[in-house]
Every structure is written in structure tokens, then in C-alpha cells.
């Protein structure tokens, strides 16, 4: 099985070709937009300037491989007319919506509608064979069991949901250690979850600079979920020093708790 087949089985994606068809934009223009996005992600994550890179050449292929960057994976398609291979990109939902954010409203709506179709197809449950008495009885029993489990979960989560609501409306921000404790995680585990590079950048909360210092992502600060201020202190050598200090607001704590509870990666 090739890498592209594995990709299609394990993740819901939309190809650059499909984006081109839905938006009536030339495919090479869509590729240009995607490369600009990926270049920005690589610049932020690795400090590598890729503006002069030949994306269709060996350098671009080696950078990509089949490893997603910012939710984008590169593959190749063969033109049946000339037998030549050309690059094609596969994007997850977050990357797709980020790239089309600059398109006009009608084009964005076409893409969003198509994503809803893809998700509906992926989530549609298989219907049992009601002509088979055994299958029909099993389906009925499963439905009753799921209903009972759902009722129990609602009863269990109700006080927790009320607690999260109270947190989100409280005042005062928490440091990393206190934030980890608030969501029921160890500090190291919490930090790794917040900076996890397997998630899209838009779904992370923090990153480390070249010196290993933690910083808050600007989109989390803008959303009122985090703060970052310069903290001045006296070092062991008696000299005054400054370092960024990251904190999580009540809104941020509540949002993380909900993500962890629903096991969402993208939010």
C-alpha cells in the first residue's frame, strides 16, 4: 500500500485539485497559496526561510516527504496524457480553512459546504439489516444501551460543566503549574500537550524559542485565553534579569478542559 493510500484511510483531507475545482481557481494558483502557508509554518517552527525554494524539485520533496506540515501533506499524481508526475497537496480541515480565509465569501462557502459533506459521509453510521431478526434485535439493544450510557454521562458531567462555566467567568490568571493542576494533568505532561507539534499550529497554546523558553502563541493571547508579560527578577549572580512569563486566563483554562474532555485536537 502506498503512502497516499494510507493517508486517505487515516485522515479526512481535501486535495489541492478539489479546492481548485470548487473555487474555479487555477491549480497552480492554489498550490502557490498552499506553499505560502506551509512556508510560514516552516519559518515559525524551524526558522527556515523557504521563499526561494523550488517546491517541485528535489529540495521541496525532501522537505515534505510524506510528513504533514501544518496539516498539509504532499504527494504526486500522474498525468495520463503525458505520463509526467506533478505535485498535489492534501490538506486537513484546519489547513484548508486557513488557506481559503483570504478568498471571497462565496468561494469560502463552497469549501465549507464540501467539508460538511465529507464529515457527514465519514460519520454516517451503517444501517443494520432489519430483515435479519438477530441483527435487528442487536441494533435495538445497542440503541438502548447507548441511550442509557448517554443519560449517565450527562448526569456525571453536569456538575463538571457547571464548574467549567464558573471558571470561565472568574478572574485571575494561573501560571503553568497551577493551570496543569486545574485541568488534572502533571506540569510536564501539560506543557508537552500545549506545545505538541503533531497538532496544527492553530491548535497549540505554547512554543519554545531557540533558548528553550516557553512563549504563548499570539492567537491564544488575542482570543483572551493566555497572557505573556516580561518578568523582571534578580539572578543568582545578583544581576537584574528579564524573562517572559506565560499565564492562562480563566477562559483559557475552561477551553483546555473542554478540549481534554472531548479529546479534541483542533480548537
Could you characterize the architecture of this molecule?
Helix 2 crosses helix 3 (27-46), helix 7 runs antiparallel to helix 11 and helix 8 crosses helix 9. The longest helix is centred in the middle third of the chain and has 36 residues, at 133-168. The strands form 3 sheets. Strands 1-3-2 form a 3-stranded antiparallel β-sheet. A two-stranded antiparallel ribbon has the order 4-5. Strands 6-7 form a two-stranded antiparallel ribbon. The chain has 3 domains: 3-123, no CATH class; 128-168; 170-262, no CATH class. Residues 1-9 have low confidence and may be disordered. By secondary structure, the protein is of the alpha+beta class. The chain has helices at residues 3-10, 16-23, 27-46, 58-64, 93-99, 105-123, 133-168, 176-182, 187-195, 218-222, 250-262, and strands spanning 14-15, 72-78, 85-91, 206-208, 214-216, 226-234, 240-248. Helices cover 52% and strands 15% of the residues.
Features:
267 residues, alpha+beta, 3 domains, 3-stranded antiparallel beta sheet, 11 helices, 52% helix, 15% strand, disordered N terminus
Summarize the structure.
This protein has 267 residues and is α+β, with helices and mostly antiparallel strands. The protein is 52% helix and 15% strand. It folds into three domains: 3-123, no CATH class; 128-168; 170-262, no CATH class.
- Beta strand count: 7
Q: What is the H/E order?
A: HEHHHEEHHHHHEEHEEH
Using only C-alpha atoms, the radius of gyration works out to 23 Å
Based on secondary structure, the structural category is: alpha+beta
Residues in helices, as a percent range: 40-55%
Unreliable segments of 5+ consecutive residues = 1-9
Give the spatial strand order of the biggest sheet. 1-3-2
The count of domains is: 3
Amino acid at each position: 500500500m502506498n503512502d497516499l493510500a494510507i493517508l486517505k484511510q487515516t485522515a479526512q483531507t481535501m486535495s489541492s485539485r478539489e479546492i481548485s475545482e470548487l473555487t474555479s481557481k487555477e491549480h497552480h494558483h492554489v498550490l502557490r497559496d498552499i506553499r505560502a502557508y506551509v512556508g510560514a509554518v516552516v519559518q515559525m517552527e524551524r526558522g527556515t526561510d523557504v521563499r526561494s525554494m523550488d517546491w517541485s524539485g528535489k529540495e521541496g520533496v525532501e522537505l515534505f516527504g510524506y510528513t504533514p506540515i501544518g496539516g498539509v501533506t504532499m504527494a504526486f499524481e500522474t498525468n495520463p496524457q503525458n505520463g509526467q508526475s506533478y505535485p498535489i497537496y492534501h490538506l486537513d480541515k484546519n489547513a484548508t480553512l486557513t488557506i481559503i480565509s483570504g478568498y471571497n465569501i462565496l468561494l469560502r462557502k463552497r469549501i465549507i459546504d464540501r467539508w460538511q459533506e465529507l464529515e457527514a459521509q465519514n460519520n454516517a453510521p451503517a444501517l443494520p439489516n432489519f430483515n435479519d431478526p438477530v441483527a435487528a434485535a442487536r441494533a435495538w439493544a445497542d440503541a438502548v444501551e447507548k441511550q442509557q450510557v448517554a443519560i449517565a454521562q450527562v448526569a456525571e458531567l453536569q456538575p463538571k460543566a457547571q464548574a467549567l462555566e464558573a471558571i470561565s467567568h472568574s478572574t485571575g490568571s494561573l501560571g503553568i503549574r497551577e493551570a496543569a493542576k486545574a485541568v488534572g494533568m502533571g506540569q510536564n505532561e501539560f506543557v508537552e500537550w500545549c506545545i505538541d507539534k503533531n497538532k496544527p499550529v492553530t491548535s497549540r497554546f505554547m512554543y519554545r524559542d531557540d533558548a528553550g523558553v516557553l512563549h504563548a502563541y499570539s492567537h491564544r493571547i488575542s482570543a483572551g485565553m493566555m497572557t505573556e508579560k516580561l518578568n523582571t527578577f534578580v539572578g543568582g549572580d545578583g544581576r537584574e534579569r528579564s524573562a517572559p512569563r506565560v499565564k492562562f486566563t480563566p477562559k483559557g483554562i475552561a477551553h483546555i478542559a473542554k478540549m481534554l474532555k472531548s479529546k479534541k485536537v483542533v480548537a
